[in-house]
Mitochondrial thiamine pyrophosphate carrier 1 (Westerdykella ornata), 351 residues
Amino acid sequence: MSDDRRRGAEPSLGTDDGQESSSAPLPPPPPPDSQFERIREMLAQPVVASFIAGGVAGAVSRTVVSPLERLKILFQVQSAGRNEYKMSVPKALAKMWRDEGWRGFMAGNGTNCIRIVPYSAVQFSAYNFYKRFFEDEPGSNLGPYQRLFCGGLAGITSVTFTYPLDIVRTRLSIQSASFESLKKTSAPGGQKQKLPGMFGLLRNMYKNEGGLPALYRGIIPTVAGVAPYVGLNFMVYEIMRTHFTPLGEKDPTAVGKLAAGAVSGAVAQTCTYPFDVLRRRFQVNTMTGMGYQYKGLLDAVKMIVRTEGLRGLYKGIVPNLLKVAPSMASNWLSFEITRDFVMGKRRSGFL
């Protein structure tokens, strides 16, 4: 048999000369993942999704309660013998409006959002990172004390990264307030001196108050308060979230999430509030005209209790509790909505 006949007897493996193969066609290869799908997959990782959702939640929650947040700070830093804001919350808010208008309600909120977006983002993502070490399997629930511990570590991590912005936010909140001893008219023509902004304050504090340590003044009482606060917040929220979930459902309704966030925030804030007062006092400790100069943490506690009583450690708690319900409720709801949107069907576990 000739070579041509042998070749003709062999089955064709191609489509030369327009001839189709007699064998079944191979299925087409799966299309490669698009760049968009790869990005979605990366963003859907629990730590990354929590970072994004935490940032959104922080900005939403702080803007909602900005007037009460600022009023709380003004109450906290007001020492004994000062009466500018020694009044009820409604009257204090009215005074703030008369003196400064809408800008007074939002004073420091821009800086607060710049601070709270990375703070909240780091906090939620750090919690998801730390909880991996305690999970039996990915997405499994933690026990209450494990949530408390992971939340405490997440709080310490987030506050360490963003503390300089927190101290600047405090300074911005009080520098335009009507504290008589803080008013300045040194500008030409007797006009009020122009107040520095966020970066101006950071630069002034660094140059005039001791360099980098000045930007972390008060961080010890801050960490002492933030660790249990964040830990309690995560622990109580998951407990209340389960409580508000209807029987047979995996998740609570939006109202249930709002209620769980409000309860968790109120419990955590009330238990750790004296540390928040100490934090604010130390953040303005070197400002002239504030009426106090504390040597250390114990000295501050002794002086506050001696001159202002135990109530001094809870100054500003009323506007704080008034703000904590809408703040934490909107924080947790915004977090869950954003996280579910980013993760889609990949979501597992509560947080």
